[in-house]
Write a structure and sequence with these properties.
Layout: H1 3-25, H2 28-45, H3 55-72, H4 74-80, H5 91-99, H6 108-114, H7 118-126, H8 130-140, H9 146-153, H10 157-178
Helix pairs in contact: 1-2, 1-3, 2-3, 3-9, 5-7, 7-10, 8-10, 9-10
């Protein structure tokens, strides 16, 4: 891969990779650093892309692995305490960017959600447990199928479907409580 191709890949997928990492970490600074790491790995490991999945899925798998490696690191374990419950100050802005026109009214739940304010919906999604949040974000924001999500995460398709169902139910319940 040459530098021009890398720039094109970063322009095309940079926002999606950053947002996906942010959804996994809920931290802007971690998302910045890890997104850079993803594109460095992409640059040096492009020959490992076999074409068995979409290029976006391949990048997301690199991103997911980078997040999990970071979580295992000593720095993360030491710096995590105290930050876990608080969302970054930029959360409202991220919610607008992440949800602006991207929420699709594909189900009865989503038709109900469409009448709600997008920021409120993304705030609720960001407070879901990590597995539910990841499945729902990949489904809603990136339009991935259960098969693609299973391939990316290593979960079975049944687990993906179950997490999507439970995540939607949790979001719907929380939004009804907020009314």
């Amino acid at each position: 891969m040459d530098e021009d191709t890398l720039r094109a890949v970063m322009e095309r997928f940079g926002g999606d990779v950053w947002n996906y990492i942010y959804y996994l970490t809920s931290n802007c600074e971690q998302a910045d650093g890890l997104a850079q790491e993803v594109f460095v790995k992409c640059y040096y490991r492009i020959e490992t892309y076999r074409g068995g999945s979409s290029f976006q899925t391949w990048l997301f798998s690199i991103a997911r692995n980078a997040v999990f490696s970071y979580r295992k690191s000593r720095f993360f374990r030491k710096s995590l305490w105290g930050d876990i419950a608080a969302l970054p100050d930029g959360m409202e802005k991220i919610g607008v960017n992440a949800g602006g026109g991207a929420v699709v009214a594909a189900s009865a739940e989503m038709q109900y959600f469409s009448s709600m304010h997008v920021n409120e919906i993304w705030d609720v999604i960001m407070k879901l447990p990590a597995g539910f949040r990841e499945a729902l974000v990949l489904d809603l924001k990136y339009g991935m199928s259960a098969k693609d999500i299973a391939e990316l995460t290593g979960w079975s398709q049944g687990t993906v479907k179950s997490r999507l169902h439970r995540a939607r139910r949790k979001v719907q319940t929380k939004l009804k409580e907020m009314e």
